[in-house]
């Protein structure tokens, strides 16, 4: 199928990069970092660049919807090549392309993502795909002690 090159499918583990250089290591040693682990869901939403929702790009409308519904985070990626159920190839590799494949990655609790699914169903109704999977989350919060002091000062 693939004349040259490689197709790789793998699970991904996110790890904190190591500090490089003396100053980076010194700052890292001084900073208070909290490491927490939990489980969550990751959702991938696949749409086309030209898809619209209420006169704006669908991918932007979805990201705004995620933010308005207090979802922990979302990122939009523009693909260079892809196809969907209709087998039509979408190219995003040229400046003139207007229908590149777009992917929105979302991470939050299963409860929050499931609650948002009916809204996304309505938004993506003209073609797209939602995929959900379990993930292990390792979160690093830098300067968390300073944030706690700020909250105490406001109270």
List the helices and strands and how they pair.
Blueprint: H1 22-30, E1 33-48, E2 52-53, E3 56-57, H2 58-68, E4 73-78, E5 81-83, E6 89-91, E7 101-108, H3 110-123, E8 129-142, H4 144-154
Antiparallel strand pairs: 1-7, 1-8, 2-3, 4-7, 5-6
Describe this entry's structure for a reader.
- Helix content is 29%, strand content 35%.
- By secondary structure, it is α+β, with helices and mostly antiparallel strands.
- A hairpin with a 5-residue loop joins strand 5 (81-83) and strand 6.
- The longest helix is centred in the C-terminal third of the chain and has 14 residues, at 110-123.
- The model has no long low-confidence stretch (mean pLDDT 79).
Unreliably modeled segments: none
H and E string = HEEEHEEEEHEH
* General shape: globular
Report the strand count.
8
Which CATH class applies here?
Alpha Beta
Tell me the helix content: 25-40%
- Give a short account of the largest sheet: 4 strands, antiparallel
| Mean pLDDT across residues | 79
Gyration radius, to the nearest Å? 20 Å
CATH topology: Alpha-Beta Plaits
Fraction of residues in β-strands: 25-35%
Under the CATH scheme, which architecture would be assigned? 2-Layer Sandwich
Tell me the domain tally.
Answer: 1
